[in-house]
């Protein structure tokens, strides 16, 4: 027993340790990867702006030559992250990184490699492929206990649909993003989700929805103080309130944005915020403020390399200001500057279009070459198609032959099977004929015995009636004796006919089994009283040893038939003034009943044949004494219907003991039922 418990404990320990050890291993590998990731980020950042892409790629290959799989993957991923637009090179780099990290079983690094594969698929407009990749990446991040990775996957898909203006799908994924971040309870991830969702509604012009999420983000930032997100929050709120013409709030948020940009040294961002404030002052005709921002932005434009689109907006706003300020000459000069900037932007756009035309021409030439190759391929495919048709015809012909062969074989097997079943049916018919012959013989035999048994009591009754008619003036005692004899003869004939009717109904299946919890003693007592009055002319005494509290679940009519037949048999075979004992005893199998007489008994061979089969009735030369045997046959059937069994013990010259056992009822004794049963036996 101790060894069994020890074995069970060992299994449970192994079952617990394996997941824990796996999680510990993943945490350890994640730590190694994150350290390598920091080193790789510094390495990629160390390249100057003037270093060519190819030189950086060569430096990367030299760096990772001696690195292990995890460090190798980390360096490749950071390089791919920086140069994600270099399509073919980055695709191959990410493939190598994925292979190395998968071999190292580092789920955290593998998740990032697969994630950037998804980014590349989105850039290539392979949307369905990208969705499958991000789903795989999210699963890997989950294995690596990195919920932020799962969130980034969802965010990337939502942002893609937002940029491609598929707002319905974008909203679906943004809702999933909000739900996932709320489940995780990570403040940083929640703030990222709020910002992305607010930007999504802002993009659609749904300013009220955008403001609600920006407000939630602002409240969260008051606790987390994440300055990185204050800048886009304040800037976007400022722009929204400009569109809503709520100038006070617009200025408030724009000034907050400028303060953060000044801390970060974001000069271009500051110029952009001043641009919005300049626009507000022009719109509200606050010329002093407009003059201040015009001067300030002119100085910044001389110091910074302002993007053309920003300069174009400044020239436009400045032109409006100078017109309002009553300086038409300066306004005209500023407008000329506006036109010059716009022309330069258009020229740049035209150059881009020329470049695009050249690219389209190269693509067209390539498409023509591909078309020629496709024509050649179509000819080859046509030849191959003809060959396939010939092969298909041959295959179909072979299949038809095989099918015909299979069909013929199946028909042959069916004929053999039918012949076999026919022979079996013939054998069954022969067996049934023999059975019917045996049953017919048994029927003739039992009918002859029944006729013989009925002739005795009926003939005796006839002689008694004739004797009474011939001698009408008999003594009272003689009349009493004649009537007793007539009663005994008629009762014997009645019970014989009742057994015959019961047996016939049993053979036709018309007797239903209806068990009912019943007190046993009243049923036995009443049955014996009826027998004592009808056929007991030998002065036989009865000793009933049954507890008054004994109750069984029995079919009353079947049980009464069992007791009546067993006791009547004992009366027939018992000498005058003898004793018949009827008793019941509770044993392990149920309740054992016994009927014991002091008759002349039977031999062992006679006992063995009593219940051998229904047709083998025991009939000796003394037919009137032995009877048809139907009573015992009914007793056996009815006992078995109760789930019990019956047997006989007998010795010549000593007497016969008949035993039968019935299962014990599960329900308790009911006095009300006892009274009803006792009443029905009267």
UniProtKB/TrEMBL annotation:
Pfam families noted in UniProt: HATPase_c, TPR_10, TPR_8
Keywords per UniProt: Coiled coil, Kinase, Membrane, Phosphoprotein, TPR repeat, Transferase, Transmembrane, Transmembrane helix
Coiled-coil residue spans: 415-442
Name of the top EC class for this enzyme: transferase
InterPro entries registered for this protein in UniProt: HATPase_C_sf, HATPase_dom, His_kinase_dom, HisK_dim/P_dom, HisK_dim/P_sf, Sig_transdc_His_kin-like_C, TPR-like_helical_dom_sf, TPR_rpt
SMART domains tied to this protein: HATPase_c, HisKA, TPR
Segments forming domain Histidine kinase: 449-666
Residue intervals passing through the bilayer: 389-407
UniProt-listed Enzyme Commission number(s): 2.7.13.3
Signal peptide (from-to): none
Entry GO MF terms: kinase activity
Catalytically driven reaction(s): ATP + protein L-histidine = ADP + protein N-phospho-L-histidine
TPR repeat extents: 231-264
Name of this chain's protein: histidine kinase
Originating organism: Carboxylicivirga mesophila
Organismal lineage: Bacteria, Pseudomonadati, Bacteroidota, Bacteroidia, Marinilabiliales
């Amino acid at each position: 027993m101790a060894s069994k418990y020890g074995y069970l404990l060992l299994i449970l320990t192994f079952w617990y340790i394996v997941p824990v050890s796996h999680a510990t291993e993943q945490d350890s590998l994640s730590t190694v990867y994150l350290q390598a990731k920091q080193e790789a980020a510094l390495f990629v950042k160390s390249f100057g702006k003037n270093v060519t892409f190819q030189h950086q790629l060569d430096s990367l290959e030299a760096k990772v030559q001696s690195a292990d799989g995890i460090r190798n993957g980390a360096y490749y991923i950071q390089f791919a992250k920086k140069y994600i637009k270099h399509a073919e090179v980055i695709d191959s780099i990410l493939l190598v990184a994925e292979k190395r990290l998968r071999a190292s079983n580092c789920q955290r690094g593998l998740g990032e490699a697969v994630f950037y594969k998804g980014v590349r698929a989105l850039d290539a407009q392979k949307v369905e492929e990208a969705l499958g990749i991000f789903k795989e990446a999210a699963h890997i991040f989950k294995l690596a206990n990195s919920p932020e990775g799962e969130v980034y996957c969802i965010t990337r898909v939502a942002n893609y649909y937002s940029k491609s203006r598929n707002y319905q799908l974008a909203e679906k994924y943004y809702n999933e993003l909000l739900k996932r971040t709320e489940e995780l309870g990570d403040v940083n991830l929640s703030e990222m989700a709020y910002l992305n969702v607010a930007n999504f509604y802002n993009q659609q012009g749904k300013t009220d929805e955008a403001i609600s999420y920006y407000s939630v983000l602002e409240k969260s930032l008051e606790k987390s103080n994440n300055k990185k997100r204050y800048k886009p929050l304040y800037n976007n709120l400022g722009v929204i309130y400009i569109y809503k013409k709520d100038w006070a709030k617009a200025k408030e948020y724009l000034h907050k944005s400028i303060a953060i940009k000044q801390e970060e040294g974001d000069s271009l961002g500051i110029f952009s915020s001043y641009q919005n404030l300049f626009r507000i002052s022009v719109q509200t005709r606050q010329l002093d403020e407009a003059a201040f921002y015009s001067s300030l932005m002119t100085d910044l434009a001389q110091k910074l390399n302002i993007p053309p689109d920003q300069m174009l907006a400044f020239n436009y706003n400045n032109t409006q200001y100078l017109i309002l300020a009553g300086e038409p000459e300066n306004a005209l000069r500023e407008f000329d500057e506006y036109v010059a900037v716009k022309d330069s932007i258009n020229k740049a756009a035209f150059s881009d279009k020329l470049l695009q035309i050249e690219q389209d021409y190269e693509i067209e030439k390539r498409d023509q070459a591909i078309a020629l190759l496709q024509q050649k391929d179509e000819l080859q495919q046509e030849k191959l198609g003809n060959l396939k048709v010939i092969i298909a015809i041959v295959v179909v012909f072979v299949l038809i032959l095989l099918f015909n062969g299979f069909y013929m074989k199946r028909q042959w097997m069916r004929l053999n099977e039918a012949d076999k079943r026919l022979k079996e049916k013939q054998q069954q018919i022969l067996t049934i004929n023999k059975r019917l012959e045996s049953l017919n013989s048994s029927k003739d035999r039992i009918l002859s015995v029944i006729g013989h048994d009925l002739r005795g009591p009926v003939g005796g009754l006839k002689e008694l009636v004739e004797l009474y008619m011939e001698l009408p003036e008999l003594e009272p005692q003689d009349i009493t004796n004649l009537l007793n004899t007539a009663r005994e003869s008629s009762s014997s004939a009645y019970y014989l006919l009742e057994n015959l009717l019961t047996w016939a109904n049993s053979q036709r299946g018309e007797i239903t089994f209806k068990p009912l919890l019943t007190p046993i003693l009243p049923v036995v007592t009443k049955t014996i009283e009826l027998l004592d009055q009808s056929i007991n002319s030998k002065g036989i005494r009865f000793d009933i040893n049954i507890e008054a509290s004994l109750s069984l679940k029995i079919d009353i009519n079947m049980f009464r038939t069992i007791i009546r037949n067993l006791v009547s048999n004992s009366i027939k075979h018992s000498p005058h003034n003898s004793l018949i004992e009827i008793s019941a005893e509770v044993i392990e199998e149920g309740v054992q009943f016994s009927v014991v007489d002091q008759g002349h008994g039977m031999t062992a061979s006679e006992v063995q044949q009593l219940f051998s089969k229904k047709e083998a009735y025991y009939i000796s030369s003394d037919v009137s004494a032995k009877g048809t045997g139907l009573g015992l046959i009914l007793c056996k059937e009815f006992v078995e219907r109760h789930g019990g069994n019956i047997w006989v013990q007998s010795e010549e010259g000593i007497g016969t003991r008949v035993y039968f056992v019935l299962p014990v009822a599960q329900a308790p004794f009911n006095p009300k039922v006892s009274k009803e049963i006792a009443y029905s036996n009267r």
